[in-house]
C-alpha cells in the first residue's frame, strides 16, 4: 500500500477544497449561467491542484470536477448520464484538458495561473460565445436524427463507463481521506506535547472535515445510484422494515435518549427493501437530530390506509420548519441551519425525495417553527391497486 507524507496529504486536501469551492461558486452562479459552462470553474480547481501538488492532486480535482459538474449542472440533473452529444463533448473535453494540465510540470503552470485576472475579464465574452455555439449545435442536432440514432449506442456505452468511473473515483478519493485521518490520529497520539493545544485543535478539525467529506461522497453516490439503478418492486412487511431502520439508528437513539414509538401493526406496502429502509432511516434520523438543545427527542411513527395507499407518518417534537422553506429541504445541499448547529451533509431529505419518487410514491411535510414536524410518505398498499 502506498504511504502518503503529510505534505502530500495536504496537497490532496487543497485540491479537494478547491473543487468544493468551485462547486459552491458554480451553484451560486447557476441562475446566471442557465446551465451553460458546467465545467469552467472546475478547470480552475484543476489548475490549483496541479500547480500546488502535481499530477496526483490535479487528477483528483479533474475526477471530482467531472463528477460534480455532470451530476449537478448537466441535465438531467442528479443523474450521471450524458443525454446529448453536446454534453458528451463538453465532458470529454474537460477530462482531456484536466489530464493535460495535471501532466504538465508544475514549473510550467505559473504562466497559466498569473493571468487569471485577464481570464476573468474575458469570461463574460467567452460565456456568450459558448452559449451561441451550444444553441447552434442544438439546432443541428434536432435536424440530424439519423446521426443521433447512430450515436445512441456509443452514449449508452459511455454512460456505463461513467458509472464505473464514479465508483472508482469514490474509492480512490476515500483512500487518501482515510490516510489523512490516520496520520492525524497518529500525530495526536504520538506527539501530543510537540503539537501543543493549538496543533491538536487543528488536527482534530482536519479529522472532522475528512469524516464529513467521506460521508458527503457516500451520500452523493447514494443519490446518484437512485437515479440510475433498476428498482424491482415487491410486497414488503413494513413492520420488518421499520425494525431494520431502528436497528441502524441505535448509535443515535441511545446517546440522545430518544424515545421512538411505533404504532403496530403496520400494513404491508409495495416497494423496494433497500430504498425504503434508507428513506425511513433518514426521516427518523432527522426527527432525532433536529431537536432543541436539552430536550429529549420524542418520535412517533404510524401508518394510515387511504384508498389503496399507505401513508406512513414520522412526527417529532423538534424545532419545526417555516412553511415557506418546506419545499427547499428536499433539494440537494439545501440546509436551513449551519453544520455547526446540526451536523449533516444536506443530502438526506433529497435522498428521501428521490427514493420515494423512484418507488412511485408521494411525500410531504406539515410543520410550524417551534411546534415539531410531521413528515409523511405514501406507497401503494400490497394487494391493492391505487
- Number of helical regions: 14
Instruction: Label the structural class.
Output: alpha+beta
Succession of helices and strands? HHHHHHHHHHEHHEEHEEHEE
Task: Name the beta content range.
Answer: 5-15%
* Order of strands in the sheet with most strands: 2-4-5-7-6
Shape: globular
**Portion of residues in helices?**
55-70%
Radius of gyration based on Cα positions: 24 Å
What distance lies between the first and last C-alpha atoms, to the nearest angstrom? 55 Å
Question: Averaging pLDDT over every residue, what do you get?
Answer: 76
Number of strands: 7
Main β sheet profile: 5 strands, mixed
Detail the poorly predicted runs. Answer: 110-121
Task: Write up what this structure looks like.
The chain is α+β, with helices and mostly antiparallel strands and 386 residues long. It is built from 14 helices and seven strands. The protein has helices spanning 6-28, 30-33, 40-53, 55-73, 85-103, 110-113, 116-121, 123-143, 145-190, 192-228, 238-248, 250-256, 273-289, 348-358, and strands spanning 234-236, 259-262, 269-271, 298-306, 309-316, 362-367, 373-380. The strands form two sheets. A five-stranded mixed β-sheet has the order 2-4-5-7-6, with helices on one face. β6 and β7 form a beta hairpin. The chain is globular. Mean pLDDT is 76; it is low at 110-121.
Amino acid at each position: 500500500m502506498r504511504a502518503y507524507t503529510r505534505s502530500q496529504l495536504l496537497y490532496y486536501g487543497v485540491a479537494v477544497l478547491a473543487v468544493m469551492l468551485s462547486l459552491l461558486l458554480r451553484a451560486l452562479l447557476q441562475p446566471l449561467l442557465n446551465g451553460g459552462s458546467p465545467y469552467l470553474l472546475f478547470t480552475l480547481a484543476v489548475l490549483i491542484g496541479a500547480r500546488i501538488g502535481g499530477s496526483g492532486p490535479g487528477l483528483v480535482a479533474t475526477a471530482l470536477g467531472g463528477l460534480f459538474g455532470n451530476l449537478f449542472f448537466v441535465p438531467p440533473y442528479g443523474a450521471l448520464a450524458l443525454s446529448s452529444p453536446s454534453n458528451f463533448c463538453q465532458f470529454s473535453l474537460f477530462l482531456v484538458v484536466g489530464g493535460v494540465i495535471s501532466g504538465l510540470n508544475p514549473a510550467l503552470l505559473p504562466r497559466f495561473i498569473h493571468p487569471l485576472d485577464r481570464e476573468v475579464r474575458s469570461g463574460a465574452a467567452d460565456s456568450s460565445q459558448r452559449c451561441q455555439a451550444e444553441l447552434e449545435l442544438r439546432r443541428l442536432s434536432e435536424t440530424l436524427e439519423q446521426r443521433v440514432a447512430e450515436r445512441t449506442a456509443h452514449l449508452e456505452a459511455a454512460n456505463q463507463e461513467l458509472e464505473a468511473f464514479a465508483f472508482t473515483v469514490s474509492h480512490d478519493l476515500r483512500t487518501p481521506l482515510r490516510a489523512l485521518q490516520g496520520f492525524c490520529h497518529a500525530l495526536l497520539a504520538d506527539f501530543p506535547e510537540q503539537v501543543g493545544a493549538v496543533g491538536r485543535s487543528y488536527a482534530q478539525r482536519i479529522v472532522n472535515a475528512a469524516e464529513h467529506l467521506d460521508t458527503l461522497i457516500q451520500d452523493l453516490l447514494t443519490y446518484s445510484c437512485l437515479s440510475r439503478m433498476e428498482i424491482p418492486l415487491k410486497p414488503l412487511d413494513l413492520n420488518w422494515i421499520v425494525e431494520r431502520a431502528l436497528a441502524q439508528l441505535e448509535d443515535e437513539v441511545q446517546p440522545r435518549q430518544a424515545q421512538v414509538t411505533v404504532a403496530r401493526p403496520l400494513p404491508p406496502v409495495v416497494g423496494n427493501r433497500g430504498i425504503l429502509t434508507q428513506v425511513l432511516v433518514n426521516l427518523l434520523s432527522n426527527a432525532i437530530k433536529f431537536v432543541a438543545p436539552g430536550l429529549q427527542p420524542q418520535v412517533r411513527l404510524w401508518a394510515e390506509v387511504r384508498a389503496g395507499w399507505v401513508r406512513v407518518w414520522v412526527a417529532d417534537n423538534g424545532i419545526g420548519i417555516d412553511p415557506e422553506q418546506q419545499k427547499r429541504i428536499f433539494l440537494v445541499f439545501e440546509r436551513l441551519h449551519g453544520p455547526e448547529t446540526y451536523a449533516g451533509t444536506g443530502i438526506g431529505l433529497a435522498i428521501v425525495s428521490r427514493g420515494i419518487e423512484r418507488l412511485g410514491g408521494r411525500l410531504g411535510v406539515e410543520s410550524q417553527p417551534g411546534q415539531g414536524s410531521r413528515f409523511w410518505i405514501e406507497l401503494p398498499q400490497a394487494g391493492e391497486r391505487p
